[in-house]
Each structure stands twice: as structure tokens, then as C-alpha cells.
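=== Per-residue structure ===
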Amino acid sequence: MARRSPARVRADPPRRGTTGEPVPTLGGLSPRGLACLVRLERTRLWPGAAAEALRAWEGFVRDPIHRLWDPESGCGVLRCCPDPDEVRHVLDLVAHALPAGDARTFRNRLAALAELW
């Protein structure tokens, strides 16, 4: 017999390593979409990559001087001065990995941010 019921396992947020620290995820995803996102982050990216990339993209687009980003002066760290091309690459990977309904919702969210550009 399992230690926890399957419903309890699904209800728990994804965890990072052994520290027990919660991994940030994207809101508004179906359980299937969340499973696809976790699989993508475990195999091709890092835990919490989608949420970090979306947060970095929102910050970049909302910043009034975002057009002045210079790749030679930035450090490239996602939390400090992210490379917009790298961030968009991660977001495109996420959009392609999600199921159709979740991908549509995610792309609409990105389109709303594009309106701020």
C-alpha cells in the first residue's frame, strides 16, 4: 500500500531536490499541462524555469528602458539582467510542450504582454 493516496500526491506542489522548497509553477494550467511542464523542466530545463522566464519577460517588457538592453553589458543572469532572446526561447519551449488548450491560454498570456511592448 502506498504511503499517500494518489489524490494527495497530485495535490502537493512539485518539490525541488531534498530541501523541500516549493518550485514556482505557472498558474492556470490543467493537471495535464502541469505534468507536461514538470516533465519539460526535469528533462530539458531546470525546476521552475517556466515561471522564472515568464517573470523575467514580464519585468523586461514592463521596464520603460527595455529597448536599451545591450548583450555586452548584461551579466545574463535571469534574475538580474536576462537575455531577452534566451527568455523567449524558454517561453517558446514551454508553449510547444503544453497541451493544446493550455498552450492557447499561455500564448494568450504572452500576447497580452506583447501589447505592452
